[in-house]
Amino acid sequence: MKIDVTKQQIATIFIVLIFGGSAIVYAISAAFPEAGDGAGPIGEAFLEVHTCGEQREIPASEGEVGGGTVTVSEDGSLAFPTEAGVTLGQVFDVMNITFSSTELLEYENNNMCNTTYSNEVSVSRGRMIEGMEEPVRPINQYRSYSLEHGDYIVVRYD
Fold it and tell me: 3-state DSSP call for residue 123?
């Protein structure tokens, strides 16, 4: 059995393969954006900031940390490169918000919110991964806490 193939047919097949292959690569990179940027897997977490009993708005921000991009949404959603070891302090730096064990936004320990609160900065962490939810509990780390995929972080000055 002899198959006759012309140069035009070969060129057509070649062009289809090139464009088809490009489309497949584009689709994969769109579905898995972390695969193309060299930063490794992307983790997701959630952050709440409270002062004097009120939840505060978080500015939408984006910045480079550890060779990858940290993205903060106004609703508190965080996206970060998990292999970069992103800390809570680095997230606050990206948002340009003052944060330490003694300061949060415009508040410093012992500034009075009112007499109901302890007037100190505290950090709590829970988990929000489906099927692996944990309650929010206080942690002793502030700026040095390394984010993990699924974290639910609450930072308070009360």
Answer: strand
E strands, the chain, are: 42-51, 54-56, 61-65, 68-72, 77-81, 103-104, 107-108, 121-127, 134-139, 151-157
Query: What is the CATH classification number for the domain harbouring 103?
Result: 2.170.130
Task: Specify whether the CB–CB gap between 113 and 157 falls below 8 A.
Answer: yes
pTM of the model: 0.69
Domain residue limits at 26: 1-31
Q: Quick one: DSSP state of residue 33?
A: G
The tens digit of pLDDT for each residue in 32-71 reads: 444 444 446 889 999 999 988 899 999 999 999 988 899 9
Same domain, 26 and 44: no
